[in-house]
TrEMBL record:
<dbReference type="InterPro" id="IPR001079">
    <property type="entry name" value="Galectin_CRD"/>
</dbReference>
<dbReference type="GO" id="GO:0005525">
    <property type="term" value="F:GTP binding"/>
</dbReference>
<dbReference type="Pfam" id="PF04548">
    <property type="entry name" value="AIG1"/>
</dbReference>
<keyword id="KW-0547">Nucleotide-binding</keyword>
<keyword id="KW-0342">GTP-binding</keyword>
<feature type="domain" description="Galectin">
    <location>
        <begin position="395"/>
        <end position="524"/>
    </location>
</feature>
<dbReference type="InterPro" id="IPR045058">
    <property type="entry name" value="GIMA/IAN/Toc"/>
</dbReference>
<feature type="domain" description="AIG1-type G">
    <location>
        <begin position="8"/>
        <end position="208"/>
    </location>
</feature>
<keyword id="KW-0430">Lectin</keyword>
<dbReference type="InterPro" id="IPR013320">
    <property type="entry name" value="ConA-like_dom_sf"/>
</dbReference>
<dbReference type="InterPro" id="IPR027417">
    <property type="entry name" value="P-loop_NTPase"/>
</dbReference>
<feature type="domain" description="AIG1-type G">
    <location>
        <begin position="219"/>
        <end position="425"/>
    </location>
</feature>
<comment type="similarity">
    <text>Belongs to the TRAFAC class TrmE-Era-EngA-EngB-Septin-like GTPase superfamily. AIG1/Toc34/Toc159-like paraseptin GTPase family. IAN subfamily.</text>
</comment>
<dbReference type="Pfam" id="PF00337">
    <property type="entry name" value="Gal-bind_lectin"/>
</dbReference>
<protein>
    <recommendedName>
        <fullName>Galectin</fullName>
    </recommendedName>
</protein>
<dbReference type="GO" id="GO:0030246">
    <property type="term" value="F:carbohydrate binding"/>
</dbReference>
<dbReference type="InterPro" id="IPR006703">
    <property type="entry name" value="G_AIG1"/>
</dbReference>
Amino acid sequence: MLDKLSESPKFRIVLVGKTGSGKSSAGNILFGEKCFEHKISAISTTNTCEKQKKNVAGEITEITDTPGLFDTSMNPEELKCEIEKCVVMSAPGPHVFLLVIRLDVRFTEEEKNAVKWIQENFGEEAAHYTIILFTHADALENESLDAYIEESLELQTLVKSCGDRYHSFNNKDMENRSQVTHLLEKIEKMVNENGGKHYSNEMYREAQERIDQRKIFWSEKPRIVLLGKNGSGKTTTGNIILGMKKEFADTSLTKPSSRSAIVEGRSLSIIDTPQLCDSSMDKKKSETVLKDLVVESDPGPHVFLLVINVKGSTQNTVKCIQGNIGEDAVDHTIIVFTHVDQLSTPLDEFINKNNDIQALIESCGGRFHSSCNVDFANRDLQAGSGSGSLQNVPYTHKIPAGLQEGMIMTVRGRVLPDANRFQVDLQHCSDIVLHFNPRYENGLEYVVHNTFRNGHWDSNYEQDYECPFPRGQSFALQILVTHESYKIRANGKHLSEYRHCIPFSHVDSICVGGMVEVNLVDIQYHES
């Protein structure tokens, strides 16, 4: 046995999770004996990385336990530094990160952010090497894990972010070794899908370089310049980025106008501009505008957002930008398409059928976005990776400033041909303020409206309506926020009203899940 343990391990496993998630217990279940210290505590019992190597189901397996993510006894830099050691201890690199989550306690914001933490600190590639391990599956009693996940859009989103890879341990049946062998099989399958590769020190180094780039980017308080013709939605785009308030006036500009704000904890400046390609603007006026733009964006813009109404003309747009701002401007430009909900086809098809649009996107390095929730912290967007229009489902659109009266939310997509249900949820933390749930079952097609709060569906609020969205067809859903209720329109026609039972200002996200494709999630002010 000692000779065998001297062999290189087949699997190198790193356990990650919030304090109290049961990481150490999971390691003990894997090994079939107590190797890691564990106890119920609000403070992580693992303060430093600990590595053990044992024979598991005939395979040499190495497990590294880590301090709890979001551990309040350590500052973020200390925690990050300690977890960095895990990669070194797992040299040449772990085959899998097991993200451990308990099923017998409430699902919290920390769990929701766990994958994001891993990706931010280890790079987006780390998600390809991550499996979610649910512990205390005995708490589900007679309910299956799949059914439990299906009930929660947040869990669906979490699982989807890890490639739908998950497993569960029954902590009351620790002698059941089949739950261990099945997990090892899933790890082996994932390793094969990754071409037999493991997460490497090189991946980690590249991730740290990107983190450093982002820090530099945000330390400079990025200056974002809005470009576009009148009616493009340029000003509205700026308002939404700044927190969905009317910071910029809707009237036509005669000179550049800037606003600074803290958006999701980061400082930035948005500079709105007059229409530079206005045929009525003479050369002298154009030069004056450009001088003002130089002053407003001093020492220079980090990125240009070229806002384009899909119903408008794009002819000569690139030449106009290059002629007015400079040849290099397109290297720092992202295209934002607006009014996509007015298209009769998905944006993908619209682009493929329009040579001018294709040429425009190509000239801007393939960078485009179809709604206003652009992640400007993502340096890759500036550097060259494009953002397509078809969103992964489940899809979450954050609303940091909450909803306001007069806002209208648009969700556009296609119901899958074999759909049995999908949902559009307005959420506040773990509560669902409005659950819009089309269903196709038992020969019936109908829509359920409801509210989920304090862990229960509200029977007083449930309402049913005939489903207006046929399977296999495109749909457009709009939800208007009024003082008394949400007014819901389906494919341009009024469907229903749903009275507020939780203040609409509390809504922090709109989430779409189920058997549906999503082309657009957008929020604008309703123009009466």
